[in-house]
Amino acid sequence: DVQMTQSPSSVSASVGDRVTITCRASRGLNRQLGWYQQKPGKAPKLLISAASTLQTGVPSRFSGSGSGTDFTLTISSLQPEDIGTYYCQQGISFPLTFGPGTKVEIK
Amino acid sequence: DVQLVESGGGLVQPGGSLRLSCVVSGFTFSDYWVFWVRQAPGQGLVWVSRLNGDGTSVNYADSVRDRFTVSRDNAKNTVFLQMNSLRVEDTAVYYCTSSLRSYYFDYWGQGIQVTVSS
Q1: What is the structure's pLDDT at A101?
Q2: How close B33 gets to chain A, by Cα (Å)?
Q3: A34 pLDDT above the threshold of 90
Q4: Mean pLDDT to the nearest integer, B42-47
Q5: What residue in B sits closest to A93 (Cα-Cα)?
Q6: CB B47 within 8 A of CB A97
Q7: How many CA atoms lie within 13 A of B85 on its CB side?
Q8: Looking at the complex, does the CB of residue B95 fall below 8 Å from at least one CB of chain A?
Q9: Is A45 an interface residue toward B (CB < 8 Å)?
């Protein structure tokens, strides 16, 4: 199974700050990596697929990068509505696996 | 608008069974793969199963294989998750999700609570 790790586990930042979340896979993913945002009590939402493809309707302040085993989700200017937990997910092999999540809060 | 609506959750004793349903609207259902993803209280997301568009190809997580069965009725735009021999550790919110033949979860239902407890 492909193991996914994320860092940090939580981040507290001010409105307007740049926030970076890192995801690492136990083996190469050929860019088959997605990012999800989950707000409290809600279903997750796909933000980015294939490491860097922004989904329709997702604000351009979100971006993804990386390849192989190391990936990054960046929020260029944190907004109050961005609070929630962010998960990465590998899409290269079954079982599909998620990272443990990064909780983003406003300072 | 795309909608996925789960039903059938509830409280069941260990060893019992439940059948979840997910009714889909807003896209050509038979073109889409369907997945179940679960989330235990206060925990992260865990993939459970995947079923292709015509129901001929299925994958399961090891933790549910031989206990859970996923199926679909394309005429009724519905996917089912039959859960047998339920364990306390199966307690979670279960999400029905779908994608256009990719391994990402594009559309999500609102989630349905399954509680396994004596």
Answers
A1: 98
A2: 14
A3: yes
A4: 97
A5: B103
A6: yes
A7: 7
A8: yes
A9: yes
Q: For A58-96, what is each residue's pLDDT tens digit?
A: 999 999 999 999 999 999 999 999 999 999 999 999 999
Nearest to B29 by CA among B69, B78, B66, B82: B78
DSSP structure string for B25-66: ESS-GGGSEEEEEEE-TT--EEEEEEE-TTS--EEE-TTTTT
**pLDDT score recorded for residue B43:** 97
CB contact residues (below 8 A), chain B span 63-82, against chain A:
none
Residue A14 exposed, middle or buried by CB count within 10 Å (0-12, 13-18, 19+): exposed
- What is the per-residue pLDDT for A87? 98
Question: If you search the block for the tokens 């795309």, which residue do you land on?
Answer: B2
CA nearest neighbour of B4 among B104, B98, B101: B98
SS3 A65: strand
**B50 and A CB contact within 8 Å:** yes
Residue B101: predicted pLDDT: 83
- Residue A43: pLDDT band by 50, 70, 90 thresholds? very high
**Residue among A43, A91, A101 minimizing CB distance to B102:** A91
Q: Is B104 at the interface with chain A, CB within 8 A?
A: yes
All residues of chain A having their beta carbon less than 8 Å from the beta carbon of residue B103 are: 32, 91-92, 96
Q: Give chain A positions within 8 Å (CB) of B111.
A: 43
Whether B104 sits inside 8 A of A91 (CB atoms) is yes
For the cut 90, the answer to whether the pLDDT of residue B23 exceeds it is yes
